[in-house]
Amino acid sequence: MKNFIRRRAHVRAQVNVLIACEESQRECIAFRNRGFNAFSCDTQVCSGKHPEWHIHGDVSPYLCGQVDFVTQDGREHHVTAWHLIVAHPPCTYLCKVSSVHMVIDGRVQWARLASMIRARRFFMKCFNATAPFVAVEKPLPMARAQLPKPDCYVHPSWFGVKYTKKTLYWLRNLPPLMAAIDYPDARCFVTASRGKDRSRTFTQLAEAIALQWGDYVDQHLDL
């Protein structure tokens, strides 16, 4: 049994995970705690206190698979391939609630429309990233963006958080996330929250992602 556990730990250490557009490092840390070789990447400096696991910059050059990069602590790294990518592309110009800004007084806001088109291209770049397993997260998108149909959705309350916040996932070769427990008196997080925390993944949800998708990749990846 001990030999099996050591073998699995050795295999997990070879599974490269990229959490795209994540400065909080909550998912990165959750995957690291389960033994995976995970890195976060964002245009912002990480707030998760692990600069040795964070790539500071645009994630676009790192979505192609085999890459060299430098983490925020100045250390150089090389990965031959990403095995799992979980992406959180910005939602400002894609989410449904922002659609009210697209047409004002009957006039299309062309700059806003151009930003939406760029955001959609980036979303699709994340979804089509070079990795066998991919998940892209987003709130409910506006119809005008014409995104593909999502594969599943979750609420943080399904994992013991006291808030509801419908979060959609587009998946490649991954199963839908399964609820663990439903918080009985959950409140709507969007109306109860303010500031940067509104866009961060709850720790409990991050742990569920690392557990469920991490174990799935571990079982189905041929290394």
Task: Give structural notes.
The structure is a single chain. The model has no long low-confidence stretch (mean pLDDT 89). With 223 residues, this protein is α/β, with parallel strands linked by helices. The relative contact order is 0.15. The protein has five helices and 13 strands. 26% of the residues lie in helices and 22% in strands. The protein has a seven-stranded mixed beta sheet, sandwiched between helices.
What descriptors fit this protein?
alpha/beta, 7-stranded mixed beta sheet, 13 strands, 22% strand, globular
- Work out the radius of gyration: 18 Å
Shape: globular
- Which series of helices and strands comes N to C? HEHEEEEEEEHEEEEEHH
Can you list the strand order of the major beta sheet? 3-2-1-6-9-12-10
Low-pLDDT segments, ≥5 res: none
Assess the beta-strand content as a share of residues.
15-25%
Number of strands: 13
Structural category: alpha/beta
Largest sheet: 7 strands, mixed
Number of helices: 5
Helix content: 25-40%
Distance between the termini: 20 Å
Task: Indicate the mean pLDDT.
Answer: 89
Map the helices and strands:
Elements: H1 2-12, E1 16-20, H2 26-33, E2 37-42, E3 54-56, E4 67-70, E5 76-79, E6 84-87, E7 103-104, E8 107-108, H3 110-127, E9 133-138, E10 152-154, E11 163-164, E12 167-172, E13 187-188, H4 189-192, H5 203-220
Parallel strand pairs: 1-2, 1-6, 2-3, 6-9, 11-13
Antiparallel strand pairs: 4-5, 7-8, 9-12, 10-12
Helix pairs in contact: 2-5
